[in-house]
Design goal:
Number of helices: 13
Distance between the termini: 12 Å
Order of helices and strands: HHEHEHHEHEHHEHHHHH
Number of strands: 5
Radius of gyration: 23 Å
Largest sheet: 5 strands, parallel
């Protein structure tokens, strides 16, 4: 792979929510600060929205890792849950044991009773329970209503359960529906995650390179950076994809820097609007590079 060629320890542009690569600038650090303030002030409902690929899951993981030992955290990634499945997922995540009937039947009443008992016990220990839910825009109405009901669990002085919702912009549209007005009224903090600004594209890319172990000079040319931002529109997932492909192309051609033309070819590999003959040319380029990479690995072993 190109890791050895560019003296890196790991892949810098993996599409995984690895929090060591969290980019603490602009919208991302601001979003994290908003979430931490909302949680530490005891707000019951918080909402974060952002377009596909803007790093909502990364932000969620960073938030969970930033909370101290006085917090009990739950992460529920799947939105396709029934109300009782949501309660079971919550109980499992925060370590609450719930009672089952003779045929493993679980009643709504008994399950919520066990959850409340667990939350009260955590409260008596001086711990606050935080549940983060991803892709909330895809939840059905009944499950969203269940979220609202769970937020009602409280003592006279504070909430026993704080809820942080992450979703695409469609979530805001859903919350405009009259049937969800009670849930919308419960949301005390909202934040819209923005893409990486053009002025910060170089800082974002270099941050990931340095975390991955790269210690050389500017690996991507200014023209390459500009092309990446123009094509990606600042969306981190798209930036990562283009940077990874551009690095493969630079390695395959024996170049020590990533140029505008490497990025342009990387974009062409993803662009369905280009003529078939050009896409075939790019595909053959990647095949050739793959063969070169295998040869490189054989020689270096």
């Amino acid at each position: 792979m190109y890791l050895q060629y560019f003296n890196m320890n790991e892949k810098p542009f993996e599409l995984l929510p690895d929090t060591q690569f969290f980019y603490d600038s602009d919208s991302y650090q601001e979003a994290l600060n908003v979430l931490l303030v909302a949680i530490r002030t005891g707000e019951g409902f918080v909402k974060v929205t952002g377009e596909v690929g803007t790093g909502k899951t990364m932000l969620c993981r960073k938030l969970l890792n930033s909370l101290g030992e006085n917090y009990v955290t739950a992460y529920i990634p799947s939105p396709f849950l029934t109300p009782i499945q949501l309660r079971m997922a919550l109980a499992d995540e925060i370590g609450v044991e719930y009672h089952q009937g003779p045929q493993s039947d679980i009643t709504d009443f008994r399950l919520i009773k066990d959850i409340i008992a667990g939350l009260i016990e955590y409260n008596q220990q001086g711990k606050q329970v935080i549940v983060c839910l991803d892709e909330v825009q895809a939840m059905n109405f009944n499950t969203l209503e269940e979220l609202r009901l769970l937020s009602n669990i409280e003592t006279e002085s504070n909430k026993l359960l704080q809820i942080v919702m992450f979703g695409q912009p469609e979530l805001d549209e859903r919350l405009k529906q009259k049937s969800l007005r009670q849930l919308k009224q419960r949301i005390s903090f909202s934040y819209q995650l923005k893409p990486v600004a053009k002025k910060n594209i170089s800082s974002y890319v270099n941050h990931r390179l340095h975390v991955a172990g790269y210690q050389g000079g500017e690996l991507f040319s200014p023209w390459a950076m500009a092309k990446i931002h123009k094509s990606s529109k600042g969306v981190p997932r798209r930036i990562n994809t283009l940077c990874n492909k551009a690095l493969i192309l630079a390695f395959g051609k024996g170049n020590t820097n990533v140029s505008y033309w490497h990025v342009k070819q990387a974009i062409a590999d993803d662009d369905d609007s280009l003529p078939n003959y050009y896409r075939r040319y790019v595909a053959l380029s990647f095949v050739s590079i793959g063969i070169l990479m295998l040869s490189f690995l054989v020689v270096t072993q």
